[in-house]
């Protein structure tokens, strides 16, 4: 049985759908500290789980015979900078609880890391799996800590820890919250709503990005990879890198009326300028045959299909 923490964030509901298709509806339990929308509640098992409450977590793992844990609870980059103490307790103390429970009960544990686990002194173009990691956000620092602690528990206690460094994830049917890459999701919502978008990063800010379906498939693939194929426990995964300008141009091929202006958010710009521009994921491609499906044109086409291109063009006129 799989437990997903932080399940009501950008990725949890999509991952639950994928894993339920694979393992059966009642073998994947979604959890969060918020009340789920009714459609989520009725789509499969949901329970309240607070990763800061060790006893609550242990009860859930034992009573539901959990064998895999996907740990999605975290405060992301920009929101973490606005609340460092909460980010530290959720992203670090919460992670410690998860590690102890996973080791104690022999769970297979997936914890996502991020392009944000690198900093201004990391090589940025491209950024390899193994290099200097001195991130400048509490989010990045907490994710480097998660990588190091997960690998320590793997080598010291035999914990089956698996970790992927996600690029900025683009999704149509889930809201984003508190990230630096969120502009690349918001542009679609605003293009559909009003035909106008105000971007909070500079037009030439290049960041690694990935469509959500690729991200969730990579997560399932690495969780199912035979242990002896994993030469590492933490892998970069990559699909594409683009700038707001390139994304806008691709979008305007289908929506020429789309108007994009720029109003830079200095906090998010400073974070983006410290992150990788291109990700080297050759180890993931070598060890467990990682391959992305969505490049920029496919991403834009898929997102527009979701929002309904005709409606977009009509509204943008
Ligand atoms: C953020 N979307 O911007 C998240 C993610 C790689 C970016 O971690 O903080």
UniProtKB/TrEMBL annotation:
EC number: 1.1.1.103
GO biological process: L-threonine catabolic process
Pathway(s): Amino-acid degradation; L-threonine degradation via oxydo-reductase pathway; glycine from L-threonine: step 1/2
NAD-dependent epimerase/dehydratase domain sequence ranges: 2-237
Catalytic activity: L-threonine + NAD(+) = (2S)-2-amino-3-oxobutanoate + NADH + H(+)
A GO term, aspect molecular function: L-threonine 3-dehydrogenase activity
Function (record text): Catalyzes the NAD(+)-dependent oxidation of L-threonine to 2-amino-3-ketobutyrate, mediating L-threonine catabolism.
Family that this chain belongs to: Belongs to the NAD(P)-dependent epimerase/dehydratase family.
Protein name as annotated: L-threonine 3-dehydrogenase, mitochondrial
Organism: Tetraodon nigroviridis (Spotted green pufferfish)
Portion of the parent chain present: 58 to 374 of 374
């Amino acid at each position: 049985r799989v437990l997903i923490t932080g399940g009501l964030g950008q990725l949890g509901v999509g991952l639950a759908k994928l894993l339920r298709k694979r393992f059966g509806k009642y073998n994947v339990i979604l959890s969060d500290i918020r009340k789920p929308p009714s459609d989520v509640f009725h789509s499969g098992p949901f329970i309240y789980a607070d990763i800061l409450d060790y006893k609550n977590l242990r009860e859930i793992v034992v009573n539901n015979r959990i064998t895999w844990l996907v740990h999605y609870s975290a405060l992301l980059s920009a929101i973490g900078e606005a609340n460092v103490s909460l980010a530290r307790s959720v992203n670090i103390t919460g992670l410690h609880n998860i590690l102890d429970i996973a080791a104690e009960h022999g769970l297979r544990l997936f914890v996502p890391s991020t392009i944000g686990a690198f900093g201004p002194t990391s090589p940025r173009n491209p950024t390899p799996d193994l290099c200097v990691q001195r991130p400048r956000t509490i989010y990045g620092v907490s994710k480097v800590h998660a990588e190091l602690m997960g690998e320590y528990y793997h080598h010291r206690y035999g914990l089956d820890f698996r970790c992927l460094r996600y690029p900025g994830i683009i999704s149509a049917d889930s809201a984003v919250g508190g990230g630096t890459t969120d502009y690349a999701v918001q542009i679609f919502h605003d293009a559909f709503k009003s035909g106008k978008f105000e971007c909070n990063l500079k037009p030439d800010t290049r960041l690694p990005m990935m469509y959500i379906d690729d991200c969730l498939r990579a997560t399932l693939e690495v969780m199912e990879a035979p242990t002896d194929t994993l030469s590492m426990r933490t892998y970069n995964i990559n699909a594409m890198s683009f700038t707001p300008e390139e994304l806008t141009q691709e979008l305007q091929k289908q929506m020429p009326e789309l108007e994009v202006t720029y109003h830079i958010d200095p906090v998010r710009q400073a974070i983006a300028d410290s992150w990788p521009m291109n990700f080297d994921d050759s180890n993931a491609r070598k060890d467990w045959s990682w391959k992305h499906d969505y490049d920029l044109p496919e991403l834009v086409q898929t997102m527009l299909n979701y929002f309904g291109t005709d409606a977009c063009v009509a509204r943008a006129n």
